[in-house]
Amino acid sequence: MSVDPRLSINQATIKYADLATALRVTVEAGVPAIGLWREPVADVGLATASRMLTDSGLRFTTHCRGGFFTLPEGPARRASIDDNRVAIDEAATLAAAGAAGSTAILVLVAGGLPEGSRDLVGARERVRDAIGELAPHAAAAGVTLAIEPLHPMYATDRCVVSTLGQALDIAADFEPAVVGVTVDTFHIFWDPDVEASIARAGREGRIATYQVCDWKTPLPADVLLGRHYPGDGVIDLGALTRAVSETGYDRDIEVEIFNEQVWATDPLVAVQRTAAAFGGAVSPHLSAPLESRS
Amino acid sequence: MSVDPRLSINQATIKYADLATALRVTVEAGVPAIGLWREPVADVGLATASRMLTDSGLRFTTHCRGGFFTLPEGPARRASIDDNRVAIDEAATLAAAGAAGSTAILVLVAGGLPEGSRDLVGARERVRDAIGELAPHAAAAGVTLAIEPLHPMYATDRCVVSTLGQALDIAADFEPAVVGVTVDTFHIFWDPDVEASIARAGREGRIATYQVCDWKTPLPADVLLGRHYPGDGVIDLGALTRAVSETGYDRDIEVEIFNEQVWATDPLVAVQRTAAAFGGAVSPHLSAPLESRS
């Protein structure tokens, strides 16, 4: 079975692989692109990571992740903003090191309520403020900040941005090339407005990256780890993928799975299974590439 | 400490108490109202339950619960619709048996995806259809059907109605006296539109019942059981209670807690703790009753 030419493996899917292994198994499985995480890049250093990425011949799709913007003003907030500037620079460097078609995207997870706070409204405002501070740096670096709405079950401890519509409302203050959104099926499929919000995201030029994985119940004890190979759960990936395709989105599509069983799998096998699952559940719903349309 | 005169104990908070015990401890704690569940009522029979309720002197606030409307047409769907007609009649009977100020409300939980289905859109349409079938019976019985949006983490296995706005869109096809919504803090607090949706619910005359409990993380292994006494978590109950009060809602307010530790508590103690928690976290944010306003 051939691998979809738009598939990208998000490194979180093979969390326990170091960067060298992640790049090697992705190439070996015939997958053409990869999204990286900051920690394994930092383990070898950015310069080395960039050389390894270039040598792999893979496209680079996203850098995961920045954000955590909900703290009130003070040294911890300043440290977070500064660290996000570093992450922006990393994303630019890695995108330049990747094969042609790489994209300079930094995925942003907003952060949860600060300890002792119940003020979601205020936390959400501080997310907007932080993005405002970072936007000039991102623009100068040619990096798109991709606000990721996370499922509402993470609203208080991880990400106060809970819907695609809310992410788009924040992004609306900025240029689409600088601030976009991450459309991840796991986080938004439940939303009664999901198809309308995807269409809006496309219309407003905000879909920085499209990520797929699946949902099923019961959720595991750690609800962060309840993600599955595409097609193994109950998300209507066909409908969502068609909705994204219809906006004209024609770039790579990441699969990002947080799942202890997937992580316990040999990483090459996990990537091969991901490619097969993607081919079955996502590829049939993608528009043909522009150049092949009649 | 005096008990808030608008507090109602939802029987799920003391799940392992039979009806006699639930009524007794509610009275003993000085709480003036109770919301009942169908199963403990059925255990003694409706006629006996009604007499027991009358004898308790408590107001009756809601009957929990009807719904489960997502099956496609067939015998199982027919059985569910028929059972909801029975539940409507039970709600009317119990409301008539309760003290003055009782309300004939049947809480509806929509149901999840049918086995093997990924079609949330279709499931949601079937919920609307079922309510359309039941509305004439509810109107004749003088019962309000209260559609309850459940937290999106339950969207696929329990309730395809996930936001207050979505519940209001369904209710909009019907008379407000016949179809309203359940506003439960646990399920909707995360919604960026929550205050606007509460205001809309009030404007459209749809707030059938207001229920409070709290949320905190990490969630327990069974995510159904992660509810807490008001004030023990991170929900801004003050803001939500003020938003509900500002709509003019002046009826009883239920506390419904699904929590193994609360269930393991002596039921009288659990009710007393609920009353104290309510007094601390909710009562200060309630408008004064109309008759005491200048």
UniProtKB/TrEMBL annotation, chains A, B:
<dbReference type="InterPro" id="IPR013022">
    <property type="entry name" value="Xyl_isomerase-like_TIM-brl"/>
</dbReference>
<protein>
    <submittedName>
        <fullName>Sugar phosphate isomerase/epimerase</fullName>
    </submittedName>
</protein>
<keyword id="KW-0119">Carbohydrate metabolism</keyword>
<dbReference type="Pfam" id="PF01261">
    <property type="entry name" value="AP_endonuc_2"/>
</dbReference>
<feature type="domain" description="Xylose isomerase-like TIM barrel">
    <location>
        <begin position="25"/>
        <end position="266"/>
    </location>
</feature>
<dbReference type="InterPro" id="IPR050312">
    <property type="entry name" value="IolE/XylAMocC-like"/>
</dbReference>
<dbReference type="GO" id="GO:0016853">
    <property type="term" value="F:isomerase activity"/>
</dbReference>
<dbReference type="InterPro" id="IPR036237">
    <property type="entry name" value="Xyl_isomerase-like_sf"/>
</dbReference>
<keyword id="KW-0413">Isomerase</keyword>
